[in-house]
Write a structure and sequence with these properties.
Strand content: 25-35%
Number of domains: 3
Shape: globular
Largest sheet: 9 strands, antiparallel
Number of helices: 12
Number of strands: 18
CATH class of the largest domain: Alpha Beta
Order of helices and strands: EHEEHEHEHHEHEEHEEEEEHEEHHEHEEH
């Protein structure tokens, strides 16, 4: 089986690493000549909307997928006419438009923050009156890792926020008073069978995920599982999907979903019976899905902006180092560390030791 992947970043790389033992081979389409997934498959270096390159990818692959959600929906839709694509272009399109995303949440009874659509600076003023302050102004599309967002705390900040996001169609969301940020990851096969990973508790800084701790048996797990199951079925989804949520005193509130494997699921490589990456390949290939339970207590720390010495990371008991082959630069995810142990206290001691290293957490 040949898997074509639109995108050649670290998520594509880890898909390849998981799929190779299953007998899969990979072809990646990415405009970056140094795309880090090139180490685990062939690399077509071209833009995501390059018709010739897309045609070549479709010709060579048995199934197509993608590793990030800013792939043009039109590109994916055209490929569906020639080769099997999973997840579908329609599922991708919903995730790319915050309006469509919020609408499907509301249709499925998944709680969201209060929001209003914003198309003009005058419309922003009206939205502020309706939603209240503080609030977050977000571009309706092409936002990730905190990009395309601006916080508004007072009316006199509105114009600067509008300019900061590029004066493009947007959505204004009320602030959510949350106790923690969580995510739930699930895989769904073409037969509708779904497996769900333990709820993850996440910590962000500067809009970037810094650490994740899976919480098997968490009290919010059942609610999160019901929400993601409804979403997967409504989208007739195939593959891995991630639902990001705020945990509040009134229950879970949906933030957004990602139609792909997710940073908060990196712990599954060492920490779950089947990693999210393997289950994604299994799902899109029509193979039975694997068990998702955690094998031990785990934590995951991102490596951002600088790479710590491998010998210092690996000297910490239970630590597993993953480097992506990317050149360090400020704010760039260049790797992650998973910590695993039968003892929760040992995991927290390792997290503390590793967090003292440059670039970790």
């Amino acid at each position: 089986m040949i898997v074509g992947v639109i995108g050649g970043g670290q998520l594509g790389r880890m898909m390849g690493l998981a799929g190779l033992p299953l007998g899969a081979r990979f072809v990646f389409l990415d405009p970056d000549p140094d795309a880090c997934a090139r180490d685990v498959g062939e690399h077509l270096c071209a833009d995501f909307d390059d018709a010739h390159a897309l045609g070549e990818l479709a010709r060579r692959a048995d199934v197509l997928t993608f590793d990030f959600e800013n792939v043009p929906e039109s590109s994916l839709a055209s490929l569906q006419e020639r080769v099997r694509v999973a997840p579908s272009a329609s599922a991708l399109g919903v995730s790319q438009d915050r309006r469509r995303e919020k609408e499907i949440f509301r249709e499925l009874g998944i709680p969201t923050a209060e929001f209003r659509l914003v198309d003009t600076i005058d419309g922003l003023a009206s939205a502020i009156d309706a939603v209240g302050l503080p609030a977050v102004l977000k571009t309706r599309s092409l936002g990730y890792d905190g990009k395309g967002q601006a916080v508004i705390c007072s009316q006199n900040e509105a114009a600067a926020a509008w300019d900061a996001i590029g004066a493009v169609p947007a959505i204004l969301e009320a602030f959510v008073d949350f106790t923690r940020e969580v995510s739930v990851i699930a895989a769904r096969g073409s037969n509708g069978h779904t497996v769900i990973y333990p709820l993850c508790e996440n910590v962000h800084r500067d809009g970037i995920l810094r650490s994740t701790r899976p919480r098997p048996g968490d009290p919010a797990s059942a609610s999160a599982g019901e929400m993601i199951s409804r979403l997967l079925d409504a989208l007739d989804y195939v593959g891995v999907l991630t639902l990001e949520l705020f945990d509040t005193c009134g229950g879970l509130v949906a933030n957004e979903f990602a139609p792909r494997v997710h940073n908060s699921g990196h712990w599954t490589i060492e920490g779950a019976r089947t990693s999210q990456f393997e289950n994604h390949i299994r799902a899109i290939a029509g193979l039975p899905l694997g068990e998702t339970s955690a094998v031990e207590t785990c934590a995951m720390l991102n490596i951002v902006g600088a790479i710590p010495p491998a010998e210092e990371v690996l000297a910490v008991p239970g630590a597993h180092l993953h480097l992506y082959g990317k050149a360090p630069r400020p704010g760039r995810k260049v790797g992650h560390i998973t910590i695993r142990s039968t003892n929760a206290g040992e995991v927290e001691q390792a997290v503390a030791a590793l967090s003292a290293l440059e670039g970790v957490g």
